[in-house]
Amino acid sequence: MKLFEKVLAARNWNDEERQILDQVQRMVNEVVAANAAHIDRTSEFPWKNVEAINTLGLNTIFIPEKFGGMPMAFKLYLEIVSIIAEACASTGIIYATNYHAMKPLIDFGNDEQRARLLPRIAEGGLAALAITETTAGSDATGMKTSFTPDGDDIIIKGSKIFISNGDVADLYLVFGKWSEIEDPKKSISALILEKGTEGFNIISKERKMGHNGSSTCGLSFESARVPRANLLCDPGDGLKILLASLNKSRPSVAAHARGIARAAFRDMVDYGNERVQSGKAVLDFQANQFTLADLASELLMLERWLDYLADLIDSGDADFGLEASIAKLRASDLAMKMTTECVQFHGGYGYCQDYRAERLMRDAKITQIWEGTNQVHRQLIGRSFRNK
């Protein structure tokens, strides 16, 4: 694994970052990894894992200090997501969803909103991002959820589907259309809905192929009344908030997929060295060496691309949407490829639950779908080369 050690060394973590990563790895080894198989088998929400994450204060690393946080580099956040996801993909996305939902509040909220709401997350609360509807998946402009002003309140009517952390969140970033604006794009708006709001209900919980410990829910808003003070920016500013949100969450889900890919690669190396067939270790067969060589090359290049993207974001560069799409596309495709090969590498054992190969494969598939399907990302990247 010398090649990967060189990449890790090139990140030049400072002493504080290295200490945080050591603590995260210890917590993952002792708690998250130990619970992963049970969580997958029972579909129980991993509260013990969440408590362990909160004990380390990991939500604070993306929240400004004045609102209860201890902000760190985006590159460090991405590495933490990967470490957690490598051990348990469900727990990894639960943690990452806090960032996806609350970063728009950090970036676009006013000081009153941030001072009132962000400390809940810094102290360990969970968050959810509510965009998708039955008529609005990859095309968010098709959403039908409505926001109607009513004095000092906003009345929400509509529903959402496939919402991560949907039944456990304390705060929800909800997107809908402002009733007084007709244009479907210009009407999109965003607000923060708080847990316990009257008229807000959890209507379903999905049974999924993977990520069984992560709640994925349907939500309904039956004239749910939210204070207008919870509206982000102005009515109609939601599309810019949405796009900015996705540009930041796509590197995050890429890091999550990287964690799954890392897990599969490590399992292949371990199994290939230990398993003996025809008197030889599985990794002594040239075909298997070729497979690992190809996969290692792709994983190493992904590691470097995510470092490049994180450096762009940490430097303050605001134009990184395409780079984020490339990261999400390549990381998720590699996670699926790596885990499929991992199952094959393990032979019959790979199809059984004795090893985690089959769980990794099931967990990997959704990474090609959420935060924009990979077909959408290929379209975004491809059309960027069109002369206008």
Question: Which key phrases capture this entry?
Answer:
alpha+beta, two-stranded antiparallel sheet, globular
Model description:
By secondary structure, the protein is an alpha+beta fold. It is built from eleven helices and nine strands. The chain has helices at residues 2-9, 15-42, 47-55, 74-87, 89-108, 111-122, 238-274, 286-314, 321-345, 357-365, 374-383, and strands at residues 127-130, 146-150, 153-164, 171-178, 188-194, 200-205, 216-227, 276-277, 280-281. The strands form two sheets. Strands 1, 2, 3, 4, 5, 6 and 7 form a seven-stranded mixed beta sheet that branches. A two-stranded antiparallel sheet has the order 8-9. A hairpin with a 2-residue loop joins strand 8 and strand 9. Helix 5 runs antiparallel to helix 7 (238-274) and helix 9 (321-345) crosses helix 11. The protein is globular, with a radius of gyration of 21 Å. The N and C termini lie far apart (46 Å). The model has no long low-confidence stretch (mean pLDDT 96).
